[in-house]
Amino acid sequence: MKPQTRKRLIIAGVVIVAIAIVIAITRGGDKAEKPTPAAKASLSVTVESPLPMRLTQKISANGNIEAWQEAAIGANVTGLILADVKVNVGDVVKRGQLLANFSNQTVAADLEQTKAKTAEAEATAAEAEANAERARAVADSGALSKQQLNQYITAAQTAKARLNAQIAAGKAQAVRLNDTQVLAPDDGIISARNATVGSVPTTQELFRLIRQGRLEWRAEVSSLQIPLLKPGMLVTITPPNSQPIKGKVRITAPTVDAKTRNGIVYVDLPNPGPAKAGMFASGDFDVGFSDGLTLPQSAVMVRDGYSYVFKVGADGKVAQTKVTVGRRIDERVEILNGLSVDAKVVTAGGGFLTDGDTVRVVAPEAADIAPNTAAPAKN
């Protein structure tokens, strides 16, 4: 081999070895300097600290809606045919309004007959009184005996008594004639009707009237809670499938049921609206205010019968925390214990989390609604 060729081979070998060394060093450096990838956040969430609020204290109860007062309207006459019925169930009536008429021909005839007898008795009484006056005038002359004088005076008194009896009978007949018209005793709503045209009622009750259209809620309240309720307190009653009704406590019953230990609280419904007597309704008594910590209801999960929230730590990991909830107002729920006022609690997306998950805290509008769709980090 020529010296020149050998020299070229030596130079080429040195270059190849140098290149190999550089490649090895470069690969080793890449492996040493490559950082460990950070744990990928499983979900983007929004957080909120418990918010102090002044909450109303309420006592919840159930009960029936009933008529405030229901009057039974009956007939004061018997044996007469019901000639006309003017109202039906649900009609609104005014005091003194005509509700029904009985046939009154017989009663009217009896009244006329009584009037005639009264006129006859009046004439007889006048004549007897005149005879008694004449007898008194001649009593001192001896023309009449004392016995005869007493007879004239007694006859006058008897005639006057018969006249008074006829006058009383006439008044009774006039009352009976008036009673053939059935009138409303008060403003209100007809709640029941037993009157039928052409019948001769065998019962005295023809109609039932809810006086003034007023209803009341009769709530069953525990004997331990009744002392907290006072007349005038506001109550919110919710009949089934209806808008809430505002009422006020009128009075509490002086006794409680010995079996249930519940007492009745009577609540006036000044504007019953669609509520009807006989409905079952629930309600809440407003008994005052107190301060408490609240969270959105979306922040609280119920698992295995217990309430939980997810607290976000400084490292971005969540911790499932058991809490006790209290009152609810609108979309917020009171947290009685389990959280401090500075805790960061997941409010959206918590349903997809488990204890120890890593999350990314974002503004509410950027929060994900499902896992694995985390928004890219902002620079």
Task: Provide a concise account of the structure shown.
It contains 3 helices and 20 strands. The protein is α+β, with helices and mostly antiparallel strands and 379 residues long. It is rod-shaped.
Largest sheet: 6 strands, antiparallel, barrel
How do the helices and strands follow one another from N- to C-terminus? HEEEEEEHHEEEEEEEEEEEEEE
Number of strands: 20
- The percentage of residues in β strands lies in 35-45%
> How much is the average pLDDT?
83
The low-confidence parts are: 29-34, 366-379
Question: Helical amount among residues, as a percent range?
Answer: 25-40%
List key phrases describing it.
379 residues; alpha+beta; 6-stranded antiparallel barrel; 26% helix
Blueprint of the fold:
Layout lengths: L2 H31 L9 E6 L2 E17 L2 E5 L7 E4 L6 E2 L4 E5 L2 H33 L8 H33 L2 E3 L4 E6 L11 E7 L3 E8 L11 E5 L6 E12 L5 E8 L10 E17 L4 E3 L2 E7 L5 E12 L2 E6 L7 E4 L10 E3 L18
Can you offer a commentary on this structure?
The chain has 379 residues and is an alpha+beta fold. Helix content is 26%, strand content 37%. Helix 2 runs antiparallel to helix 3. The radius of gyration is 49 Å and the shape is rod-shaped. It starts with a helix and ends in an 18-residue tail after the last strand. The C terminus is likely disordered.
